[in-house]
UniProtKB/TrEMBL annotation:
The chain crosses the membrane at residues 31-54, 66-87, 99-119, 131-152, 173-193, 199-220. GO terms for cellular component: membrane. Keywords: Glycoprotein, Membrane, Transmembrane, Transmembrane helix. Belongs to the unc-93 family. The keyword Transmembrane helix applies. This is UNC93-like protein MFSD11. It holds the Pfam family UNC-93. It is a multi-pass membrane protein. PANTHER family: ET TRANSLATION PRODUCT-RELATED, UNC93-LIKE PROTEIN MFSD11. Its main location: membrane.
Length: 234
């Protein structure tokens, strides 16, 4: 008797898939998936392209050891950002989550500009390079860049999770599944081109998707605020 009362696993899976498709078809999720896609691109960048570029730059003192330090700085930025954005969120009902996204956008823009100016164009290829740069690369610049990337990344991810939970309280599982799908898909694309494209082209992709993702998030966020300042579901 118990067997017949149990929910069919296949039916449950199909229903979850249908829910995900239904949510993906909404305008809010369509816009947010652009932002989610950016988090995948930037993930592939700081996991592969950034450390590879640092380790290949001969102008840096002991570049191989700086790879680990760069990763440590990204982690420091992630933790610091999560704490800082958590404090900022106390005033989110006043200013909206958009203030965190705007701040994170500026952090990433600053990081990309520093990389463009101080790291050789062919550094992502993984071969030691002494190609000229606009400004001399230093350990300090590498550390600052890593921290900025970490702070910005934590800002985007925390706010995406926050707004998804607010918009889809009854459909959080498929909503977050779409988030991870978008992020993972673009991360895979990013890993593919990381060792093929020169640094300026990679930075162009990052900057373009950053601006598109930020604009998409702000569109959803401020429509939400305009509709209901208490952040109720729209």
């Amino acid at each position: 008797m118990k067997f017949f009362l149990e929910v069919n696993p296949l039916k449950k899976t199909l229903q979850a898939f249908k829910n995900a498709l239904r949510i993906a078809a909404t305008r809010q999720m369509g816009l947010l998936m652009v932002t989610q896609a950016y988090t995948g691109f930037v993930m592939s960048f700081y996991v592969l392209a950034f450390p590879t570029s640092v380790g290949s730059t001969n102008a840096l003192p002991d570049p191989k050891s700086l790879v680990g330090i760069a990763g440590l700085m990204i982690g420091t930025g992630e933790v610091s950002g999560a704490i800082g954005w958590g404090l900022v969120n106390r005033w989110a009902k006043l200013w909206g989550r958009g203030i965190v996204i705007i701040s994170s956008t500026f952090c990433h823009l600053a990081a990309f500009i520093l990389l463009f100016l101080s790291i050789p164009d062919d550094a992502p290829f993984g071969k030691n390079t002494s190609a000229p740069t606009y400004i001399a690369p230093t350990e300090t610049l590498v550390c600052i860049t890593g921290i900025l990337i970490g702070i910005g990344d934590s800002g985007f991810n925390t706010q995406i999770m926050g707004i998804l939970g607010q918009l889809y309280p009854d459909d959080s599982t498929p909503a977050f599944a779409l988030y991870k799908f978008s992020q993972s898909f673009t991360a895979a694309v990013g890993f593919f081109y990381s060792s093929v494209l020169t640094l300026p082209w990679q930075i162009l992709i990052q900057t373009s998707t950053l601006l598109l993702g930020s604009a998409s998030y702000l569109l959803v966020e401020y429509r939400l605020i305009d509709a209901d300042t208490t952040y109720e579901r729209i």
